[in-house]
Fold:
Amino acid sequence: MMTIKVHHLNNSKSQRILWALEELGLDYEIVFYKRQPSFAAPDDIKNIHPLGKAPVVEIDDFVMAESGAVVQYLIERYGEGKFMPDRSSSSYAKYIELMHYPEGSLSPPLLDQLFIRMLPVEDETFKGFTQQRVMNHLSYVDGLLEGQDYLIDNEFSGADLQLTFNLQGANAGGGLRHYKNLEAFVQRMEARQAYQRSIDKGGEFSLGFKK
Amino acid sequence: MMTIKVHHLNNSKSQRILWALEELGLDYEIVFYKRQPSFAAPDDIKNIHPLGKAPVVEIDDFVMAESGAVVQYLIERYGEGKFMPDRSSSSYAKYIELMHYPEGSLSPPLLDQLFIRMLPVEDETFKGFTQQRVMNHLSYVDGLLEGQDYLIDNEFSGADLQLTFNLQGANAGGGLRHYKNLEAFVQRMEARQAYQRSIDKGGEFSLGFKK
Structure:
């Protein structure tokens, strides 16, 4: 019998894992952690994984970090074909690309935007550079969603789930109001019953960090 | 007959793709691009992919970006079981985690370190914060490689290939001299024949960016 334990930090990427598990209809246990006033994760997550970040997920005896990887793995192993295209289809390459893209490319400028607000960083050159990177990415993603509700074959997949967290962060950081497809996408994702259940179980969720 | 065309920017993550293709023994075509003096990619990459970054890889008629995704996809599709653990093995979750980790978690602080040097960014708080993030990650990866030559089951895999680029960047940025496992790892990877062939075909490779 498989067991899953999610080390869940409030207002963090571990929200993705709860949502994925709810979409997949799997049983799991949550261990709750609370951010420190500095916004840092509490030190005791380091007892579970040396990087000391959430999510960390225990699947049977294996301890796994990296939210994009965990979502990809859970869907492959337990999805019974749901939430990802068939590996022999032409959509599979796009799926793999968009499973890596949110953390690999979209997240770094959004993180920098967050650091600029939180530390704060006063350097005007870096602020302008970061803003330009964020806008390039949001325009790109807005284009991907033109005329469709979901990223891959217009069906909900792990790629939509991955993307949502980063867009929620972008919304907190500088707003999605100039990107009509992205605002509607986030609302559509947050309206999903599995998403709602993940909020019920994981606790209040907000990326509108205030210093 | 499958065709692969790599849009290759000098001193960029597209080096990974050439190396992966050499490891896999696949035929491919290279289209060369050269960084501008500002370090930015030339505008004509935007004709291939709207983000205008390398690598972009054309596999038959599909245009794919995101270097980690391309490496994962090429190995799955053409590796005939090489360079990744069997999906039914307990090592597979670790493999997926470490295919996402280099770009998802290790790269962002290294990129910030690069921006600090290139823009340059003068903010002392951000510089210290970035340095701490880099050190945390390098210590973690140094630990992963303690007592073994490769990340997964002590056999070369896509995860080693993914990690190498970021460590080469870290070496240029601030040095790996305090991380003996990482220095030796990079030397071991760069000594591989397929790596050497990728340099021969792709051209000189250096991440020691100078402003």
